[in-house]
Amino acid sequence: MRFDIITVLPELLESPLNHSIMQRAKDKGLLEVHLHNLREYGLGRHRQVDDYQFGGGAGMVMRPEPLAACIEKLKSERPYDEIVYTTPDGVRLDQSLCNRLSLRENIIIICGHYKGVDERIRQKYVTLEISIGDYVLSGGELAAAVLVDAVGRLIPGVLNDETSALFDSFQDNLLAPPVYTRPAEWDGMTVPEVLLSGNDKLIDEWRHEQSIERTKTRRPDVWEKFEGGV
User: Fold this and answer.
1) N or C: which terminus of the chain has fewer CB atoms within 10 Å of its end residue's CB?
2) What CATH number was assigned to the domain covering residues 169-228?
């Protein structure tokens, strides 16, 4: 799977995508992440990528010409399944969307900045707009890193335990159950006996019950989806 990320601040993405699971995925040849500095396509001596917005108002807007030049160059090299724009007014990123995107081969991510990108870029190129939450960031780089991590870990072979991702929170519209490790007793608190029983059936039942209870209590909005079979 390949991600091409268009950004004015590629250095913001270098660290989160070059460590831990993402780095192992790249080392295995399962994931490619390429950063493209939009200023290389900027206009004039100063490599301009933004300008004042028509109609007035505070904040600059990313010009269409540099973005179009970068996108067209990438599209001339390979087909893309999705061109994603990270924006607060996009569809909310959730586990089902991550699952769907993990089946794609090539994805472009456009990181917005300032007041966003010229609307004509969204109309002409963008196939999917994604928000990671109801708040505003200084730029789309952190959202892009979240998206790559959430999707990349689902690629078969990325995680050491192939079944691990199947039991993550939200995979079945339930939160994950509590987890424990050694020691069995710590600070006066003990691990539930069922987890020490070795009885896989009872352990699975306990975990499912705990997932249900935790989801009902902590995320009633997610519980509603589970009950509705969404």
Assistant:
1) C
2) 1.10.1270.20
